[in-house]
Amino acid sequence: MSYMEPPPSLHRALRALTGLTLGVIALTLPDWVFPIGSERLEAQAPRGAEAAEVRTLTLAEALSLTLEHSRPIAQARMGLAEAEGQVAEAWGSVWPKLDLSGSYTRNLEPPSTFLPAIIFNPDAGPDDLIRVQFGADNVWSNTISLDQPLFQAQAFIGVGAAGRFRALQEEAVRGTTHQVLTRVRVLYYDLLLVQEQARLIERSVERVVQSLEETRALNRAGLVSDYDVLRLEVELANLEPQLRRAMNQAAQREREMVIELDFPEGTRLQVAGTLARMDLSDIDANDAENREILRLTGVELSYSDDPEAMDLLYRRARAGNSPIQQTELVEGLRHTEMRLEQAEYLPKVSLFGTYQVQAQQDGSPNFFGDSDQRGYGKLLGVQVTLPLFTGFQRGARVDQRRAALRSAEIDRELAEDRLRSDLRTLLEQVEEARLRATGQRGAVELARRGYEIASAQYREGLGGQLELTDAEVALRQSEFNYAEAVFDYLSSRARLDELVGDLPIPARGAGR
């Protein structure tokens, strides 16, 4: 992430601080502290470098771009394409197999054999033999063979297993999509939070700089001590590393978002929305950017402890939760695999047929000669194969598949129990964050009023610099606590949507 010039007020503070001769204080902020504007985080390259282009994203656009460019989702789709190929391959074992083979042989010396001469000459002796040539100089052979399974349980069950595997991959694509969308949503909220933290620290810098200028004026008039000036200088020096840390965190979240959306390296991102100004109690009271964030939720909540409502929500999550659906599909696949092994005990029945054309010819090759030099063969039959004994291998394989099936059943039962527990936990987290945000909103107003009173009293000489510093710290902390409560609420809602399987998926191109 790049840098930009500090505001004039901070420049004035730096010039004043560097002129101090207090050996214990040396405020050496760089030329390029990351400031945060009141509306959005901005940054530009250091002096003399060209500013990088910043791309502004709304939440809807970020989710839409995730569907288009996410590499984990694309990888899951490749798994589905592989499953489609396995289904087609499984159907190949059901369809007939048709083969065509052909050959040509040139006999440099046609093969011969010896037969008793008495076959051709009754007067020949019993030990007399005669050489007989079999075959001609040129031999051709073409064969078409057909093999059609009539009853082969393994083939038909294998087709069902491939179909179940395809359904599992389809669900894996849906689950991966939910995971990535939720991760992008939480990352979006997290980027808003760290940007808000940096913005609040920058506002604290501005307030401290203003107080420092006023305190110096009072010090020159002999109304406050050098110690009051020193305390503000120390506070300003302590704020600089906090600001840098917040900016580094924002840069890290920005890079993570760039990776998720598969943008070119170095792309600058600006996310729309402000957590500190977000009103959770009334969506319509927010600006357009915050309204979009609050409305991009899937599960509508009533915050009710009604057991029937909770049970209804659980059944909804049970039907929509992708990990649960995947465990069910794995269980069905394991059951099909066990049936596939059990089918090895059954006989196999197939129909086979052959059509063959042969030809022989002496002398120079004349493709397949004439009709007197060709012969034809046709056959059709049924083959039945019954496995009798395979060294107890079939029983062992069935036992293995049965154990795998039981393991899949345990996985499903465990996933169901965890789903009910996680659902309750997330509902409690959402409610706790909402209540905390409501209470913290009032605390922000009180802290702001307290800072105004402390600042006014300090300027009139009725209050001390310590009270002013404490009031400023309390204001900054209460503002961040409210933003953090809003973040916890939004991120818990995002995870709840994923758990229930009801995610806000905008149309492609939304928000552009």
Descriptive overview:
With about 500 residues, this protein is of the alpha+beta class. Helices cover about 55% and strands about 15% of the residues. The protein contains 10 helices and 8 strands. The strands form 3 sheets. A 4-stranded antiparallel sheet has the order 2-5-7-8, with no helix packed on it. Strands 1-6 form a two-stranded parallel ribbon. Helix 3 (about 70-90) runs antiparallel to helix 4. The protein is elongated, with a radius of gyration of 41 Å.
What is this structure's SSE topology?
Elements: H1 8-18, E1 54-57, H2 59-69, H3 71-92, E2 97-106, E3 112-116, E4 129-133, E5 138-151, H4 153-220, H5 226-260, E6 268-271, H6 288-295, H7 307-320, H8 322-342, E7 348-361, E8 374-385, H9 393-459, H10 465-500
Parallel strand pairs: 1-6
Antiparallel strand pairs: 2-5, 3-4, 5-7, 7-8
Features:
512 residues; alpha+beta; 4-stranded antiparallel sheet; disordered N terminus
- Largest beta sheet, briefly? 4 strands, antiparallel
Structural class: alpha+beta
Low-confidence stretches: 1-51
How many β strands by DSSP?
8
- Summed up, the helix count is 10
Instruction: Note the beta-strand portion.
Output: 5-15%
The portion of residues assigned to helices is 55-70%
Distance between the termini: 24 Å
Shape: elongated
Sum this structure up briefly.
The chain is of the alpha+beta class and 512 residues long.
